[in-house]
Amino acid sequence: MDSWAGAPAAARGHPARPPRCLQYMLPHLHSGRQVDQAILSEEDRVVVIRFGHDWDPTSEKKWQVTGCFKVKNVAVIYLADTTEVPDFNKMYELYDPCTVMLFFRNRHIMIDLGTGNNNRINWAVEDKQELVGIIETVYRGARKGRGLVVSPKDSSTKYRY
């Protein structure tokens, strides 16, 4: 019997690593009803929904840097494929390869990122801490009843369209 079996990773000589938060580990929403239920059912946390495709490199890149283990107390993250769930494409104007929208208590929360589009994030956020900061800022603002929150970092010059 191996005496190291129950020991923490650091004790076995391996560095302790946080769990990886990749797309296949996040819950997928397969219908419009599931998307509605995800938004309606969560009372205490921000609902983050990534509308896009799993095979899209932009979508994959965004969730490789998410660090969802850091926001699990303030947010729940879902993925919805825009071809599988086309119900929201026109309503939310989902024409980009990857779009992230945030909701709190059945309300869409807008984010002022300095880009002029306050409804969504439609680019790959390169820095894990930046995305975690945005989600935490939305949580704090939404709990205070704000429908529009200001991002902790101005993205107006960083991302060019």
UniProtKB/TrEMBL annotation:
<dbReference type="GO" id="GO:0005681">
    <property type="term" value="C:spliceosomal complex"/>
</dbReference>
<comment type="similarity">
    <text>Belongs to the DIM1 family.</text>
</comment>
<dbReference type="GO" id="GO:0005682">
    <property type="term" value="C:U5 snRNP"/>
</dbReference>
<keyword id="KW-0507">mRNA processing</keyword>
<protein>
    <recommendedName>
        <fullName>Thioredoxin-like protein</fullName>
    </recommendedName>
</protein>
<dbReference type="Pfam" id="PF02966">
    <property type="entry name" value="DIM1"/>
</dbReference>
<dbReference type="InterPro" id="IPR036249">
    <property type="entry name" value="Thioredoxin-like_sf"/>
</dbReference>
<keyword id="KW-0539">Nucleus</keyword>
<dbReference type="InterPro" id="IPR004123">
    <property type="entry name" value="Dim1"/>
</dbReference>
<dbReference type="GO" id="GO:0046540">
    <property type="term" value="C:U4/U6 x U5 tri-snRNP complex"/>
</dbReference>
<keyword id="KW-0508">mRNA splicing</keyword>
<comment type="function">
    <text>Plays role in pre-mRNA splicing.</text>
</comment>
<comment type="function">
    <text>Plays a role in pre-mRNA splicing as component of the U5 snRNP and U4/U6-U5 tri-snRNP complexes that are involved in spliceosome assembly, and as component of the precatalytic spliceosome (spliceosome B complex).</text>
</comment>
<dbReference type="GO" id="GO:0000398">
    <property type="term" value="P:mRNA splicing, via spliceosome"/>
</dbReference>
<comment type="subunit">
    <text>Component of the precatalytic spliceosome (spliceosome B complex). Component of the U5 snRNP complex. Component of the U4/U6-U5 tri-snRNP complex. The U4/U6-U5 tri-snRNP complex is a building block of the precatalytic spliceosome (spliceosome B complex). The U4/U6-U5 tri-snRNP complex is composed of the U4, U6 and U5 snRNAs and at least PRPF3, PRPF4, PRPF6, PRPF8, PRPF31, SNRNP200, TXNL4A, SNRNP40, SNRPB, SNRPD1, SNRPD2, SNRPD3, SNRPE, SNRPF, SNRPG, DDX23, CD2BP2, PPIH, SNU13, EFTUD2, SART1 and USP39, plus LSM2, LSM3, LSM4, LSM5, LSM6, LSM7 and LSM8. Directly interacts with CD2BP2.</text>
</comment>
